[in-house]
């Protein structure tokens, strides 16, 4: 019994082996390599419209077919380049269907595959036309009478050592060369795996599964129409590294992370838990992205997206986002920012603090909404900051508007009614500011900030057009009220136009400009009705002058320190005094000696008719073209040239009537002969040294 079983099994095995051998020789006799190669080329052409050239075809004993030197060409192109090329193709051929003239391939394995995406310009009908290598050519159907045309089925395909030449932007990747691998298992549940990478660190790995009515028909629909067949479904994941999204959205940079996807009814749903996304606009930074988006194919059109973008100190949440052709992006969003942690993200000055909350909506790419900032501290530069306990504003796109908001600028209470704009061309600010007390010296850089050579006094780059008002204004010892001015900054120029304020009960009008790159400055000033007695108290002068003063000045200088100003000051200034009185004379004691010392008593309280000073500044030197003081009974005229340390030379001429010195000194001691009533007499002085020192004039009398 046992021997019979063994003999039966051995006999059955011999029959199987013999059948395979007979079948193999039958196939080789009826399907020679050349005949099968031609039928493959014809079938592939009829199915795809592409010319397929097979260099060599051979059978293995198991029935596999090995093809070498495969080239797929597009007949629409003049170029002889292969759209797809493969060095080795191994086909796992089913033998029994082949007997029925059905070409059923279980699997295909391709090695050293090249895919070339390129274009060429053709002259068609006298017109230039661009033809792409992937453009589908017209397919030739088999003749209805050709009953011998073989059927074609492919179950599994594997591509190894692939090279993609991306010369034209067809795929959402940069131009260049990419290495790839691919496998497709076409059964009841089709599976697909794809890896693609380049030498710059970009990589994408896809693991997908799905159901397809016809894999080849689905691939053709995807190539021609950008979508699969309606009944197709796909699920799986994408793992990316440094994958550029710029060809999908110019505002995006690179994506690294894992994304799950589902495709059903040509709606593609993408979901990520924690991917890294580098944005280029409107903020340039690396964000952690999580969310879900549904796209409709072809297009694609964004059906809905919800998710968050997060960076240190920053969180952006979006919801109900949609995008359709002609309508732009629409949805809702909110943002929370810790300004201290995210200051570099927005290009803010180091030291900025505060908590920002923003809510808004997108409508056709137009963003609008409101924001508030709590505990804001924004350092503009050394000594100047913008502070607010609570700040509210509205925004539209890149424009932020503040309406009557309370701020503290340079430690001064301020009401702001302004709009700020941040665009690719730069930052700008427009509107009005109302100060309680405006520290003009601190805002313009009055020298204290510049004493430290390592300290910059530059103002952040922005364009400005601001109407400024202040109840009071201070610049060093100068204090004024009721200031109005227009602050303008364009490029590297800053200026104050139409400046007017009350100063010492008079009215000052001025224009000031500054070149920020060189610190070159100019000042045009006109004063009317200024009370000299207020100036005396303001500058703590020894004597007090009671008079109305008018002044005009046209000056230029550079630098931010008193020393720099003295060394660079140029221009002209004129002072004019009306009728007035001097109390506690500004003349120094000891100018007159001998019998004339009693004259000093006459200078203790002086009533005068007028006075004028005409002064020229020339880069470190001062020249008094005219200083004239008219007290009717006497007058004084001074001409002087000196540096800012007042070392120089001067002449001081006194003219007086005889009645002025009557009962004061013997005229003979003065060298006056034949004195006449009503005549003026001259008393000259000279000085070489300190031109404001009485000792200098006393020594040269």
Verbal overview:
With 701 residues, the protein is mainly beta. It is built from nine helices and 38 strands. Strand 5 (119-124) and strand 6 (127-132) form a beta hairpin. The model is unreliable at 8-13, 15-23, 142-147 and 446-459 (pLDDT under 50).
Label the structural class. Answer: mainly beta
Q: List low-pLDDT spans.
A: 8-13, 15-23, 142-147, 446-459
Overall average residue pLDDT: 81
Number of helices: 9
**Percent of sequence in beta strands:** over 45%
Tell me the total number of β-strands: 38
Distinctive features:
701 residues, mainly beta, 33-stranded mixed sheet, 9 helices, 13% helix, 57% strand
What is the topological layout?
Blueprint: H1 2-30, H2 33-48, E1 51-59, E2 65-73, E3 84-93, H3 95-99, E4 102-117, E5 119-124, E6 127-132, E7 151-166, E8 176-185, E9 190-197, E10 203-211, H4 215-225, E11 233-244, E12 252-264, E13 267-279, E14 285-296, E15 301-311, E16 314-324, E17 328-338, E18 353-363, E19 366-381, E20 384-396, E21 399-409, E22 412-423, E23 426-439, H5 440-444, E24 463-475, E25 478-490, E26 493-503, E27 506-515, E28 520-531, H6 532-538, E29 544-546, E30 548-558, H7 562-568, E31 570-577, E32 580-583, H8 599-602, E33 605-608, E34 610-618, E35 621-630, E36 634-643, E37 647-657, E38 680-690, H9 694-699
Parallel strand pairs: 4-7, 23-24
Antiparallel strand pairs: 1-2, 2-3, 3-4, 5-6, 7-8, 8-9, 9-10, 10-11, 11-12, 12-13, 13-14, 14-15, 15-16, 16-17, 17-18, 18-19, 19-20, 20-21, 21-22, 22-23, 24-25, 25-26, 26-27, 27-28, 28-30, 29-32, 30-31, 31-34, 32-33, 34-35, 35-36, 36-37, 37-38
């Amino acid at each position: 019994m046992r021997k019979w079983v063994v003999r039966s099994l051995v006999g059955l095995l011999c029959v199987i082996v013999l059948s395979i051998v007979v079948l193999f020789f039958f196939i080789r006799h009826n399907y020679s390599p050349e005949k099968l190669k031609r039928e493959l080329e014809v079938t592939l052409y009829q199915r795809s419209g592409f010319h397929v050239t097979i260099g060599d075809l051979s059978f293995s004993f198991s029935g596999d077919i090995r093809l070498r030197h495969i080239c797929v060409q597009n007949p629409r192109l003049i170029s002889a380049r292969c759209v797809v090329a493969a060095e080795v193709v191994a086909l796992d051929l089913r033998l029994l269907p082949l007997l029925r003239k059905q070409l059923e391939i279980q699997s295909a394995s391709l090695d050293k595959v090249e895919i070339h995406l390129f274009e060429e310009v053709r002259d068609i009908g006298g017109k230039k036309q661009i033809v792409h290598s992937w453009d589908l050519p017209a397919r030739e159907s088999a003749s209805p009478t050709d009953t011998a045309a073989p059927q074609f089925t492919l179950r599994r395909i594997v591509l190894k050592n692939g090279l993609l030449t991306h010369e034209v932007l067809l795929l959402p990747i940069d131009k260049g060369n990419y290495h790839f691998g691919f496998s497709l298992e076409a059964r009841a549940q089709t599976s697909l795996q794809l890896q693609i990478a380049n030498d710059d660190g970009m990589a994408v790995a896809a693991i997908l599964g799905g159901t397809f009515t016809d894999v080849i028909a689905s691939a053709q629909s995807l190539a021609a129409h950008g979508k699969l067949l309606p009944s197709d479904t796909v699920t799986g994941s994408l793992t990316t590294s440094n994958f550029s999204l710029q060809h999908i959205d110019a505002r995006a940079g690179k994506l690294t992370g894992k994304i799950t996807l589902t495709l059903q009814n040509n709606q593609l749903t993408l979901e990520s838990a924690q991917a890294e996304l580098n944005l280029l606009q409107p903020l340039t930074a690396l964000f952690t992205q999580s969310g879900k988006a549904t796209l409709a194919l072809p297009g694609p059109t964004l059906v809905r997206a919800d998710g968050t973008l997060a960076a240190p100190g920053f969180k952006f949440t979006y919801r109900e986002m949609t995008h359709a052709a002609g309508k732009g992006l629409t949805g809702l969003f909110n943002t929370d920012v810790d300004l201290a942690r995210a200051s570099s993200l927005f290009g803010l000055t180091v030291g900025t603090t505060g908590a920002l909350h923003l809510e808004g909506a997108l409508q056709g790419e137009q963003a609008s909404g409101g924001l508030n900032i709590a505990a804001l501290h924004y350092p503009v530069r050394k000594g100047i900051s913008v502070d607010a306990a609570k700040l509210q504003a509205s925004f539209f796109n890149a424009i932020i508007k503040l309406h009557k908001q309370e701020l503290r600028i340079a430690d001064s209470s301020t009401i702001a009614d302004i709009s700020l704009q941040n665009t690719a061309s730069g930052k700008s600010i427009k509107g009005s500011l109302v100060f309680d007390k405006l520290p003009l010296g601190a805002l313009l850089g009055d020298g204290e900030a510049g004493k430290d050579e390592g300290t910059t006094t530059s103002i952040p780059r922005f364009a400005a057009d601001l109407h400024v008002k202040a109840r009071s204004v201070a610049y060093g010892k100068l204090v004024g009220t009721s200031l109005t001015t227009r602050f303008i900054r364009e490029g590297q120029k800053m200026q104050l136009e139409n400046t007017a304020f009350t100063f010492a009960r008079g009215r000052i009008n001025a224009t000031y400009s500054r070149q920020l790159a060189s610190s070159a400055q100019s000042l045009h000033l006109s004063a009317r009705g200024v009370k000299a007695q207020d100036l005396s108290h303001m500058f703590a002068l020894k004597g007090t002058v009671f008079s109305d003063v008018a002044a005009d000045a046209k000056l230029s200088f550079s630098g931010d320190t008193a020393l720099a100003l003295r060394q660079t000051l140029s221009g002209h200034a004129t002072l004019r005094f009306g009728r007035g009185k001097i109390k506690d004379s500004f003349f120094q004691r000891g100018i007159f000696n001998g019998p004339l010392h009693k004259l000093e008593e006459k200078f203790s309280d002086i009533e005068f008719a007028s006075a004028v000073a005409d002064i020229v500044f020339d880069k470190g030197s001062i020249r008094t073209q005219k200083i004239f003081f008219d007290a009717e009974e006497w007058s004084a005229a001074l001409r002087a040239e000196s540096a800012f340390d007042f070392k120089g030379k001067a002449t001081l001429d006194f003219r007086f009537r005889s009645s002025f010195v009557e009962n004061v000194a013997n005229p003979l001691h003065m060298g006056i002969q034949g004195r006449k009533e009503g005549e003026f007499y001259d008393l000259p002085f000279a000085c070489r040294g300190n031109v404001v020192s009485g000792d200098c004039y006393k020594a040269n009398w």
